[in-house]
Amino acid sequence: MQAEIESLKAQVAKIDSLKAQVAEVDVLKQQIAFLMQRAKGDETPDLESPMNKRPSEGSHMQEGGNSPATI
After folding, report:
1. What range does the domain containing 37 cover?
2. Where is the segment annotated Disordered (predicted)?
3. What's the structural domain count of the chain?
4. 41-62 pLDDT, tens per residue?
5. Residues 49, 59: contact at Cβ < 8 Å?
6. Helix, strand or coil for residue 3?
């Protein structure tokens, strides 16, 4: 019984590792798609590089500032 539990734990760890690798591949695919689009000159104005993404600012934040907007 203990051997089966250890085997299952090892399998879960392997699955978690594979999931992390899949996530890395997904990011690389996004970066490649972005670079291919830029290389073709088809860049759209609202497209941002996945490498340069910033957390979106909330609607209560003023453009270029960190102080809350007054309503």
Report:
1. 2-43
2. 39-71
3. 1
4. 865 555 555 555 555 544 444 4
5. no
6. helix
Structure tokens at 17: 């590792």
Query: Does the residue 34 lie in any domain?
Result: yes
Cβ pair 50, 30 in contact under 8 A? yes
**Residue entry with tokens 């203990």:** 2
* Share above pLDDT 70 across residues of the chain, in percent, rounded to a whole number: 58
Please write down the long-range contacts of 15-19, taking CB distance under 8 Å and 24 or more positions apart.
none
Give the model's confidence band at 63: pLDDT under 50 very low, under 70 low, under 90 confident, else very high. Answer: very low
